[in-house]
Amino acid sequence: MRPQSTNAQISPMSIDITSAYQPIVSLDDRAVVGYEALVRTSGDGPSIAPQELLRAAREQGVTTDFDWRCRASALHGAVESGYPDQLALFVNAEPIALDAPPPRDYLPILANASRLSIIVEITERDLMGDPAGLLRAAEHARNLGWRVAIDDVGADSSSLALIPLLRPDVIKLDMALVQGRSSNETAAIVAAVAAEAERTGALVLAEGIETENHEYSARAMGALLGQGYLYGAPEALPDFGEVLEPVRSLDLDGTVTVRAPVAVTPYGLTHSLGARRQADSALLDAIENSLLHSAYGTGSSTVVLATVSASTGLTPARQAIFEDLAARTALTAVFDSHAAPSAPGFRTVVVGADEPLALERSIVIVAPMSSVALIAVERGMAEDGTPKYDYRLTYDRHVVLDAATVLLRRIPARTAV
């Protein structure tokens, strides 16, 4: 038996790869509604796991090229089989690759596959390492005419936190949920996914279904679609020109409508909320403290974003709250025109002192079950020399998500250690 190659020995761009396809079914009647394309190695060498290939690609700095190569393989196999337009084709993607234009060599296959109903699965594990890149990746995928799925939801808290921000068309439940025992954590994940599916029309797909009991659990969790060895192993696609059975389409007509925020700061998004209110620093401090303390109880799938106005800066007391929240939430980030703290637990983003955002102070909290934003802008000084503000407090989920999106787009990618 030949030994497994190490990452140093693996050359992802020279190893022969192909695609295997696993069926995805409607749980109501087990009719096939799509397939997921999975990477496989071919040729005479040892089989190498896709995760190991991707790890080697990262270490060698060829993630983007290798990821597009895998996706081109998946599309080529589908086109060659006469893949029906009605069937959904799920393809995996690293956000860093979607955030880059496709290599010129792959433009012909992209054109040939443009008729297909493609759903791209966001597979990045460190989802909060580059939230701006994730948002761009989803946007670029949709610009190609593709739908978006979030994979492995429930595997970690950040995947759940990003569901409302990425606005996926399909939510894929991690296999551990259907294969494991129910717990309080499982219940929280199922409730959050159910809430998002009801709000947006996103479809829920359960992975790892291998037994009748797994299927029962998936249905109990609200999944409408299933994937796993109970319905078929990954293998070559059939020749659809010889398939006589009618093809079932995946009903995506009711899925997500994606909004594109049109403002450059959170306050610019609030004009539809009616008359503005006015407050001094003391009142805003009190409201902010109340909102921040409420975030302690929303769990590790929460995103907390704050902007600090240039005239007030970040106080030590508020910094301590953000450091505490950073340990409890999926992401806590502060946007500040002042010098960043030396070693904060939270993410910091430097804002130019002459930017409009430097005049705003906001708290934006996105949680799976609820969201809220306090958004204020400086409007002169009070008699005691403290700033006065116009502000709006909103629980309108669309406005809150748009405000969060505007801020998340400014967060630079976290440098790998």
Give an overview of the whole structure.
- This protein has helices at residues 50-59, 63-80, 95-98, 107-112, 131-143, 157-161, 163-166, 175-179, 184-200, 212-220, 281-295, 316-326, 397-408, and strands at residues 17-26, 32-41, 88-93, 117-122, 147-153, 170-173, 203-206, 225-227, 277-280, 303-308, 331-336, 347-350, 360-366, 371-381, 387-394.
- The chain is α/β, with parallel strands linked by helices.
- A hairpin with a 5-residue loop joins strand 14 and strand 15 (387-394).
- The strands form 2 sheets. The protein has an 8-stranded mixed beta barrel with strand order 1-2-3-4-5-6-7-8.
List its salient traits.
15 strands, 13 helices, eight-stranded mixed β-barrel, 417 residues, elongated, seven-stranded mixed beta sheet, disordered N terminus, alpha/beta, 31% helix
Rg on CA atoms, Å: 23 Å
Residue windows where pLDDT falls under 50 for at least 5 positions: 1-5
Indicate the mean pLDDT. Answer: 87
N- and C-termini, Cα separation: 36 Å
How much of the sequence lies in strands comes to 15-25%
Derived from helix and strand composition plus strand pairing, the structural class reads alpha/beta
The number of E-state strands comes to 15
Walk across the major sheet and give the strand order.
1-2-3-4-5-6-7-8
Order of helix and strand elements from N to C terminus: EEHHEHHEHEHHEHHEHEEHEHEEEEEH
Largest beta sheet, briefly?
A: 8 strands, mixed, barrel
Q: What count of helical segments does DSSP give?
A: 13
Percent of residues in helices comes to 25-40%
